[in-house]
Amino acid sequence: LEEIGQSVFVGLRLIQGEELYATDQGIPMLGEATEKGTPADRLEYLFREQILSEPGVTGFDRDNDGDPSLEFDAATRAITVTFRALTDGGLLIQSVPITTQPTQEPE
Q1: CB–CB of 81/68 below 8 Å?
Q2: CA-based, 20 to 30 A from 93: which of 18, 57, 61, 62?
Q3: Using N-to-C axis directions, what is the helix angle for 40-52 and 2-13, rounded to 10°?
Q4: What is the pLDDT of residue 13?
Q5: In a 3-state reduction of DSSP, which class is residue 83?
Q6: What is the model's pTM?
């Protein structure tokens, strides 16, 4: 479960085009995700699809409101993605900060 959690954490923070060998992976932060006026449901979709693309993630815990939710902090210009994902290793509950400031990976 820890390996899946770390993979999701890194995947959510990866900016599309950042990896030279996999330019199609990651969130399109330099385009659609940071454009003014992008609807919140579209952003939730982008993060949901990124989570589901990670190996070992099989879905979301919809019985307990597990779909990704976004919390915006205007002061820091950060987004926190919170979700409950069903995985091959069990239930993964995470809140992942998406920011320009360096953060430490979960232990």
Answers
A1: yes
A2: 18
A3: 140
A4: 87
A5: strand
A6: 0.81
How far is residue 78's CA from residue 71's CA, in Å, rounded to a whole number? 8
Name the nearest CA neighbour of 70 among 38, 92, 24. Answer: 38
Q: Distance between CA atoms of 26 and 23, rounded to whole angstroms? A: 8
Give the amino acid at 104.
Q
Helices (H), ranges, the chain: 2-13, 40-52
Q: Compute how many other C-beta atoms are within 10 angstroms of the C-beta atom of residue 30.
A: 13
Classified as helix, coil or strand, 15 is strand
To which H or E segment does residue 73 belong? strand 69-73
Q: Are 94 and 106 in contact (CB under 8 A)?
A: yes
Give yes or no for a contact between 27 and 50, defined as CB atoms under 8 angstroms apart. Answer: yes
Coil, helix or strand at residue 9: helix
